[in-house]
Amino acid sequence: MAHVDRSGGANLGGIPGDAAGGPGGPRATASRYALLPLRLFLGVTFIYAGLDKLTDSSFFASGGAGSIGEMMNSVRDSSAVPALVDLALKNPAGFGYAISIGELTVGLGTLFGLWARLAALGGALISLSLWLTVSWATEPYYFGNDLAYLMAWLPLLLAGAAVPSLDAALRGRRRQRGRRLFE
Questions:
Q1: What confidence tens digit (pLDDT) does each residue in 34-50 have?
Q2: Distance between CA 52 and CA 30 in Å, rounded?
Q3: Cα Rg of the chain (Å, integer)
Q4: What are the Cα distances from residue 46, in Å, to 43, 111, 119, 147?
Q5: What's the whole-model pTM score?
Q6: Which of 4, 98, 123, 128 could form a disulfide with 106 if both were Cys (CB 3.0 to 4.6 A apart)?
């Protein structure tokens, strides 16, 4: 007879944590760590992108090869939201710093799992804005990577960071403090 544990999953044999997927079984462990490779990839990628921009002096110029100003001028007419590009062109250096610091912050939050959902929201918004401006006219659409990054952020936005993460450590610490208050 199959025993159903409190988590709602069938536990054949009734042994907690057995191979059938009990609370501590391999499937439960795999579920907790399922988004970790995505977190690592997005975190490292966004940290690298932010640092790459911050260390490239030509990136923050209003014009010239490799500058944010030149890039924004080149995509302005093909952008889905030209007003967003026009806003960036009012202060290319400020926009460049905002993007690079945003990428760095999002990457660090994602990598360490600190305010993971907020970091994922930031990453999704950065990716959405880049898709609507820089890579909007890319044909076929799947050659532009900003849409793929946007879709990659959505699972992290929905699920947050399970383990290992600073969010999980802080939750555990709050639970411990709560237990001490009521014991």
A1: 999 999 999 999 999 99
A2: 33
A3: 22
A4: 5, 9, 11, 15
A5: 0.81
A6: 123
